[in-house]
């Protein structure tokens, strides 16, 4: 803490809720070391409401992923039991996806802290939340006293209770009252949920005080663009909310775009010129509960990098709920026997000799069937489940390769390539763990290689370079997958110990028909060879493509022209047939 705690702040009760006793002990020790005197831990999330009825905490530090009743369920239970009189909640989560954050904030969380967390940041956020709660408590006490003594000040006290004490903007309570009033009319209501994406960066660079005052200025500035009957205010730390009578889809879309563009303009503030990137989720309806309408707008928030304005629809929400269900199904997938590996052969292009294969992950959901890797792998990466899945892939691919070599079902110089995710590659000790696995299975380093994407390398280039250097010293070959579709920077490429570049299928598709595509593929091939790298062409589907690649000196081919990804036994039969064909082929 940068300053000593005041006596009032020290005595505010804090409840830590997490099913992991180690996490509870860590947080309680951390808070008590900083001078907080009323810190309790709770391992059973289903007991939170009862504990609050017995003794209401000022703040709950709440884990999201818990058995029986998760953090979202706890917040719903608190809302049902206490309404606006419930405790403040800071959510602790290892999930970094926008849907988890939006859902937590729409359910009333004051803030979201991502695990693993920085101790100083957690303490500052706890202090900020408690200071706000202390201000609310004091103002409420003042309001009660003043109402008893001076009837004419009722309106002023009501204004205080509906105002955020930090920014001076209408707070969540005021916005919900305004929304309830609008929804009582005949037109229905609309909500614009605005996330200020750059606010956290401004707070880090210029301080939280600057960020809070900037939010106040921007919140007040939005008023100039709002139609009659609209109300704007602060919904969360970096979220503004606009409520208004439903103007119709076109007018609401135009208003959302106007607000988003205005926020992105330069704003003079404290001698600086600041811009504010933002995203807007919108929803409108009649006969819908006010809280539900806000939730619909929050669910409509576009992901970073998408178009900045999006409106709620039943199809959108259904897709998000489907994604959420799939995310939940990913948990523990490695223990349920739903994953398997398919293998796609790699051939030396001039001779057609099978030299290895790429192991490709597949997920067969018991109710949904095969799930596209393009869908579930990004989910696994965002949730952190990719680490367990990546370990599963390494172990099972090595088990398969060990058995194939022992049984003589693949040649002794056969090499198996495995895709490695960014979070897996950049984990401390990844290279040593991979080498230890190979030794445990008795596999030579020449029999195994890894493939990483350009974007995966750039996630943490320093750590990636460190891990790849260890593998390179031990003779593990490393390929850059989908080369040319990401950064493609020679400045970083020449510093990395890679042995293979894989030309993405996008460069191969039109190679037989279009001279520009041929020239581009030839340039990449020459570049790779000039750096001492082999070249693998992905997505080879026609004989014409193969002939062009052979002519430009491409070393290895992979694609449907030769074989689709095959289950293990089918792949081994394919290899046997390929060897038999090669042995009986005429020579000379």
From TrEMBL:
Top-level division of the source organism's lineage: Bacteria
Domain Response regulatory: 13-130
SUPFAM superfamilies (alphabetical): CheY-like, EAL domain-like, Nucleotide cyclase
InterPro entries, per database record: CheY-like_superfamily, Cyclic-di-GMP_PDE-like, EAL_dom, EAL_sf, GGDEF_dom, Nucleotide_cyclase, Rev_trsase/Diguanyl_cyclase, Sig_transdc_resp-reg_receiver
Residue ranges of domain EAL in the record: 323-579
Modified residues (4-aspartylphosphate): 63
Keywords: Phosphoprotein
Name of the protein in question: EAL domain-containing protein
Keyword Cell inner membrane recorded: no
Biological classification of the source: Bacteria, Pseudomonadati, Pseudomonadota, Gammaproteobacteria, Oceanospirillales
Gene3D superfamilies per UniProt: 3.30.70.270, 3.40.50.2300, EAL domain (3.20.20.450)
Ranges of residues in domain GGDEF: 187-314
UniProt entry tagged with the keyword Kinase: no
């Amino acid at each position: 803490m940068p300053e000593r705690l005041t006596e009032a702040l020290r005595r505010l009760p804090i409840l830590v809720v997490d099913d992991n006793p180690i996490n509870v002990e860590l947080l309680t020790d951390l808070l008590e070391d900083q001078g907080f005197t009323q810190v309790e831990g709770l391992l059973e999330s289903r007991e939170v409401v009862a504990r609050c009825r017995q003794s209401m905490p000022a703040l709950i530090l709440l884990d999201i992923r818990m058995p029986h009743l998760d953090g979202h369920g706890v917040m719903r239970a608190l809302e049902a039991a206490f309404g606006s009189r419930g405790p403040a909640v800071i959510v602790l989560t290892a999930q970094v996806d926008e849907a988890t954050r939006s859902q937590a904030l729409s359910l009333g969380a004051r803030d979201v802290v991502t695990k693993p967390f920085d101790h100083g940041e957690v303490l500052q956020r706890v202090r900020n939340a408690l200071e706000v709660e202390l201000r609310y408590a004091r103002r409420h006490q003042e309001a009660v006293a003043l109402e008893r003594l001076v009837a004419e000040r009722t309106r002023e006290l009501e204004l205080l209770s509906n105002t955020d004490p930090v920014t001076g903007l209408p707070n969540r309570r005021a916005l919900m009252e305004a929304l309830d009033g609008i929804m009582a009319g005949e037109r229905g209501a609309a909500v614009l949920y605005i996330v200020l994406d750059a606010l956290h960066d401004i707070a880090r660079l210029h301080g939280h005080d600057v960020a809070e005052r900037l939010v106040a200025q921007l919140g007040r500035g939005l008023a100039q663009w709002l139609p009659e009957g609209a109300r704007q205010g602060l919904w969360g730390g970096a979220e503004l909310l606009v409520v208004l009578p439903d103007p119709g889809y076109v007018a609401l879309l135009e208003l959302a775009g106007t607000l988003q563009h205005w926020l992105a303009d330069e704003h003079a503030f404290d001698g600086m010129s600041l811009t504010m990137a933002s995203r807007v989720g919108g929803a409108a309806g009649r006969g819908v509960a006010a809280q539900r309408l806000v939730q619909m707008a929050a669910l409509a928030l576009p992901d970073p990098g998408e178009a900045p304005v999006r409106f709620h629809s039943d199809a959108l929400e259904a897709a998000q709920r489907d994604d959420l269900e799939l995310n939940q199904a990913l948990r523990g997938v490695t223990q349920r026997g739903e994953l398997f590996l398919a293998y796609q052969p790699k051939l030396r292009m001039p001779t057609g000799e099978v030299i290895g294969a790429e192991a490709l992950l597949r997920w067969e959901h018991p109710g949904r069937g095969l799930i596209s890797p393009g869908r579930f792998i990004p989910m696994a990466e965002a949730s952190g489940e990719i680490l367990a899945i990546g370990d599963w892939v390494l172990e099972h691919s090595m088990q398969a390769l060990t058995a194939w070599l022992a049984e003589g079902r693949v040649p002794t110089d056969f090499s198996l390539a495995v895709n490695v995710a960014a979070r897996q590659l950049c984990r401390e000790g990844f290279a040593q763990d991979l080498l230890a696995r190979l030794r445990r299975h008795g596999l030579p380093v020449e029999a195994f290689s890894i493939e990483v994407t350009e974007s995966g390398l750039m996630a943490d280039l320093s750590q990636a370079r460190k891990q790849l250097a260890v593998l390179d010293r031990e003779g593990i070959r490393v390929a850059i997958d989908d080369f040319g579709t990401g950064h493609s920077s020679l400045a970083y490429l020449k510093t990395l110990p890679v042995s293979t570049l894989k030309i993405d299928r996008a460069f191969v598709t039109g190679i037989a028909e279009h001279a520009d595509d041929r020239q581009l593929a030839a340039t990449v091939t020459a570049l790779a060879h000039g750096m001492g790298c082999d070249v693998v062409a992905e997505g080879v589907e026609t004989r014409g493509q193969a002939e062009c690649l052979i002519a430009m000196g491409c070393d290895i081919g992979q694609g449907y022209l030769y074989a689709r990804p095959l289950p293990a036994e089918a792949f081994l039969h394919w290899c046997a047939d390929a060897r038999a064909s090669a042995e009986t082929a005429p020579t000379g």
